[in-house]
Amino acid sequence: MQNLSIKINVGSELCLKNPDSSELGQKIISNSILLIDELGFESFTFKKLSLKINSPESSIYRYFENKHTLLVYLTSWFWSWTEYKIVIATTNIEVSIEKLEKAIHVLTKPILVDQSISYVNEVILNKIIIAESVKAFHTKDVDEENKKGCFETYKYMVNRVAAMVLEVNPLYEYPRMLISTVVEGAHQQRFFSEHLPALTDSKKGEDSITEFYTQLVFNMVLK
Amino acid sequence: MQNLSIKINVGSELCLKNPDSSELGQKIISNSILLIDELGFESFTFKKLSLKINSPESSIYRYFENKHTLLVYLTSWFWSWTEYKIVIATTNIEVSIEKLEKAIHVLTKPILVDQSISYVNEVILNKIIIAESVKAFHTKDVDEENKKGCFETYKYMVNRVAAMVLEVNPLYEYPRMLISTVVEGAHQQRFFSEHLPALTDSKKGEDSITEFYTQLVFNMVLK
DNA sequence: GCAAATATAATAGTATTACTATCATATATG
DNA sequence: CATATATGATAGTAATACTATTATATTTGC
Using CA atoms, how far apart are residues B32 and B53, in angstroms rounded to an integer? Predict the structure, then answer.
């Protein structure tokens, strides 16, 4: 994938003003990715971001209500981008099993090289997704945010892959449970592999995570 | 399980003073469970807890450094209790497959009735685990806390069940990855089922989550 | 039963966070 | 060129996340 100038569709309910539309907006996105990665989400503040980009804090608030909605925006961007990659990886592939396998690869392989779509560093964004994305929906107002459509890109992506599962086996009962288990599980295992190795069997270097989840999907679907 | 007066071993690195040892300590634990459930972890503060228990904020700080370590303490308690339940459920069971199945049940079934071990409401604590426990280790200082032993009870529990997997199939390659996928996945799916149903196939009422993860484990291990 | 140690209460204080508000200035658009 | 819109500069506020100090209970050891 080269520098394609595609636009990742994220949803207008996630920001007050589209960051894509201005230089400041893009600076907010690209630098927030760097800063969240550097400090962790809890220590990240709009104040610190404002110092990094040399713009007043109040200007950032014109784009995002608060740092939580910014995180939701970033995760939504990531899932939208992931779905795009799945589409690219599976078009023109006729055999359903092969198609599903390609999708699982996109979902479980680590992102090692920045594919530089516009101003987003996908390698670092992926690190944030692994470390922080669960915080986007583990809040007291999930239901409210869900109603507003904050998690649509995630749902679309999961449902697209779940549909591939049904293509392989139309009788399989739990396609979405299977895929969301894989998506979240793969991130979780990457996190464990780096920080809590006693909870996994994945060693750095080799890619047992993709192998494990590929086995898992086909053991379940081709039963 | 009746009111057994067992003690759940949690680890001294998790608190400044053992809350088990005093009335105030126990009040802190039991009321923090209620308040975190009520407000969500982000809105929960020691100030609010101090008002609820009618003790000054500074007294709470004598037990826990901050609300994060309190959450780590609660999750550690939960895993220790879970392991205890697994031990109870599997003693005197000879057949390895049956043993593993019982353990998976303990890990995936919802906790519906308060088993009232001491001052901890396990039903509400389980709700907290489902909603908030990922925040216990998704922080910038996981590594440091891990070194201190903050996640030992979780590791012990996972490794105990992983050992049961190996009992069923000594050649299985990824026992810990499998079990941590199940544990985290089961909680995740309960959360999705309630808040983001588009990401799961589990409907309220029936227990497809336990069924799904039991299938999953045996499809992987008995391959 | 009393002294000493320990735990808790009462109160105050501080830096940082998470915003909101106002007004001036720059830039784009029609 | 007028108007709208975006950004900058600056200020302010309530709440958060602590720390510190002193007084008062309560427990424990002799």
Answer: 9
